Fold each of these.
Amino acid sequence: MDYIDFYERVKSLAKISNLTIEYVVNQAGLSLGAYNSYRRRENLPRADEAQKIAQVLGTTVEYLTTGKEPANLHVNLIQDMQAVIDQYRQNKNAIKKD
């Protein structure tokens, strides 16, 4: 795996989400300086840091490191979407009763 791909994926996902790299890494508990230090030294963040970055970006470490979506990602997305739909229906029904 090319370390540059990791950083390019982070950059791309941040841009798509209208987030700055600084915001992403700060939300993940890193400083921008630490993040840039990893990048300059051609190293990846520690696994726990990569997990937090992935979480902020709404993706997985697997995607950030390989570019491949995990096999169960679609199942998780469908389950998450169903939960949102169910919550919406409950709220809609509660409003109708008022």
Amino acid sequence: MLIPIAQAAAEAKFTIVQIISNATDLIRQVVVLVFVLAVAVFAWGIVKMISAAGNAEKLKQAKGIIWWGIIGMFVLAAIGGIIAFLRGELGIDTITNIKAPQFTPQSSPAQQQP
């Protein structure tokens, strides 16, 4: 399975840095998506806890959902940090600085002297 991918990469003349950069970009996007889902699970647990209204069984279930949401957020934040660390150590930072537009002052016709 990996041989055709490696062959296609060789034919397209991708560098290993480009391949790693694309892979980490994809992983980062997946991590962000799953992190959003973990936050949703956590929020759903909070809603379930509020709606438990003193029912011990429902409260226990809600606490379990909240814990899974917290664990998921922690794991995904750690994965994101590891990816950011590796990209920085390998020199694959793709963050580009956006230059602010520069305006040069021009004199108005009223300021010009004949």
Amino acid sequence: MEGLTGRKLNAIWGIGAVQCLYKRNGKWYHPLKRFPAALCDKEGYIYFADEKEYKECKQLRITQKSIHIGGNGIADIPEYVNITEQTTNQSWWARIRLYLTSSLTNGK
């Protein structure tokens, strides 16, 4: 769905991150700089309470300019929270549409 951002998913899913990044396939991101933080893909997210937890995540290949995740992306990380398993796809997409619609009408 177009228009999704980490900020929007942070609000929709109630992640509670200071910095939240979104990539549909969950395989590449800019580095995280503010914590708590989260990386999101189209079906869920991985949450890092602090920088130590982020830097110790063995599945992330962190460089100065990017984060790379192999395989199925962040979905392969054991702490991954799969939102689509917690809610039905219909209610998940309905919440996203509602949020995007209200954001557009409220000018956010």
